[in-house]
Amino acid sequence: MALGALSLLNYGLQVTTLTQNLDFKASSGGPTLTAQIDLGFYSAQGLAQAIATAMVNADPVNNYTITVNRNVMGGTQTLMTIATSGTFLSLLFGSGPNISSSIGPIIGFNKTDYLGLTSYTGNQTIGTVLIPEFIGYNYLDDLNMGKVFGSVNVSASGLKEAVVFNIQQFIEVEYMYEPKANLPAWQAFWFWAIQQRPFDFMPQISNPNLAYQVTLETTEYEGQGMGFRMKEMLPNFPNLFQTGSLTFRIIAANQNFSVGG
Predict the structure, then answer these.
(1) Rounded to an integer, what distance in angstroms lies between the CA atom of residue 209 and that of residue 231?
(2) Cys-Cys crosslink for 55: which of 35, 111, 220, 228, Cβ 3.0 to 4.6 Å?
(3) Mean pLDDT across the stretch 175-196?
(4) CA–CA separation, 76 vs 202, rounded Å?
């Protein structure tokens, strides 16, 4: 089926040694704590989970909830909120001892301290956003695509048995009529996705609360999702391009993460 609104793909979040620390205080007058986020490539959802885990590792007393809010600017932006179950939280993006390696810039927080509340929302959208020019076609959601990963044995009597490791869900979609001017934006996305790095896929920006953490499973051009081709729609539509059928493997569909002791 065809989607009813434009889609959004959010990608490009990488934690390095220059962006892996979050300095904070969990009590007034208490010590400065440092949450050290694991290095790697993330979707927005995956990064939220990694930050929550790192904060509770630094402060096992309180719960920390990281919220990914996509309902910003008509669903075209993504903001991150950091909150505690405790009675005090300061985020020291402006004065912490690890300011030179702060994660603040990549999660949308300004280079300043956030004081006086127990919940703070970033000021800028996170990640790199790609919004296709037209709606997605030939769309199949996670309820209509699935595969069991495991092994099957057939006994001498003909009894068929399966050992199931997990049931994996997928999404399929295709984009067409992409103008030539959009190709650089698509190319940047492809170079991220074909390396099997995670990204967030929002099927319709009119429903920003429905988003999936995915990796690129297959393209029409390459069966393992490690290659791409933007094909010009000749002869009828010169200078307009199509992606071919794309399959995304779902990692997780939850967008809020709460971790605590």
Answers:
(1) 31
(2) 35
(3) 97
(4) 10
Q: Which residues contact 157 (CB under 8 A, 6 or more apart)?
A: none
pLDDT at 255 over 60: no
Amino acid (1-letter code) at residue 214: V
Stretch 203-214: mean pLDDT, rounded? Answer: 94
- Could you tell me the pLDDT band of residue 143, with boundaries at 50, 70 and 90? confident
For 65-76, write each residue's pLDDT tens digit.
999 999 899 889
Return the CA Rg of the chain. Answer: 21
116's CB contacts (< 8 A; 6+ apart) are none
Which pLDDT does position 165 carry in this prediction? 64
Q: Calculate what percentage of the chain has a pLDDT beyond 90.
A: 81
Architecture in CATH for domain 130-254:
Beta Barrel (2.40)
Domain with CATH 2.40.30 in the chain: 130-254
Selection from 88, 86, 44 nearest residue 261 by Cα: 86
- Residue bearing tokens 């959009």: 182
* CB-based contacts of 20-23 (< 8 A; 24+ apart in sequence): 20/101, 20/103, 21/96, 21/98, 21/101, 21/102, 21/103, 22/51, 22/54, 22/55, 22/91, 22/102, 22/103, 22/104, 23/91, 23/92, 23/93, 23/96, 23/97, 23/98, 23/99, 23/102
pLDDT tens profile 75-100: 899 999 999 999 999 999 999 999 99
Task: Report the helix count and the strand count for the chain, using DSSP H and E.
Answer: 2, 21
Single-letter amino acid, residue 80:
M
